[in-house]
Amino acid sequence: MNKKTIINSIFENLKTIIGALIIAVIIRSLIFQPFYIPSSSMEPTLLIGDRIFVSKYTYGFSRHSFPFSPNIFDERIFYKKPDQGDLVVFKTPVDNRTDYIKRLIGLPGDEIQFVEGEILINNKKIIRKRINTKNSVRCGKFTFNVNSYEETLPNGAKYIAVYNRSGTLQNTKKFIVPENQFFLLGDNRDCSKDSRFLGSISFINLVGKARIIFFSNDTLKGSMFKFWNLNNSFRFDRFFKKIK
Fold first, then answer.
1. 102 catalytic, yes or no?
2. Is 3 one of the catalytic residues?
3. Per-residue pLDDT tens for 134-181?
4. Phi, psi angles (nearest 5°) of residue 3
5. Closest to 43 in 3D by CA, of 127, 145, 125, 128
6. Could you say which of 3.40.50.1360, 2.40.110.20, 3.40.50.300, 2.10.109.10 is the CATH number of the domain covering 31-242?
7. Which of 13, 78, 100, 162 could make a disulfide contact with 146, Cβ separation 3.0–4.6 Å?
8. Among 40, 56, 65, 102, which one carries the catalytic annotation?
9. What are the tens digits of pLDDT across the range 174-209?
């Protein structure tokens, strides 16, 4: 093989690699992006070790749709407002870099408040029904005994939220959601850093909507690379599960 042939071969391989990288960036930025769930703030809906696909196109695109959030434009293009109940991935306003996932509870103009442990939206309690599907959840290295509720938002969206039995958040100030911002909460109400602490989230910071769990591995029960422990480690019943 002569020198020219070798150079041509290297050049063709580089073109293939660069082309594949461009396609991967386009898919990741504009269509779907995988995310890993590292915390228990969304239990029981999402568990530590879940890997999910998030649709990037659902709410349109901002600079946070792209890797490293380049400062290429300040607005959101093809914007579509999220719905109450959506599970939203967003960049935290603290650093505009860290990805969080929470449930959208309050829309622009809404007034949100916890009173005696229940959520009020515009001075009306959301509908909730006690259920027994989940009695304990994780919170960091600890496990809490919880009360589980099916909550129904004003638009009819339903989901399960849990509250710590031994000391749930009872009362808060009234949060008023500004224009083009949203109020988001973790389903694990007493183990979540959300809009109660971060404030409302700007529509610019929205990354996408959680759609499906494509893989799940319980990291406390063993590494995914220990194939002899698959039945204990892998949560096969969560593979390709649609997120609600």
1. yes
2. no
3. 789 999 888 989 999 999 999 999 999 999 998 888 899 999 999 999
4. -60, -40
5. 145
6. 2.10.109.10
7. 162
8. 102
9. 999 999 999 999 999 999 999 999 999 999 999 999
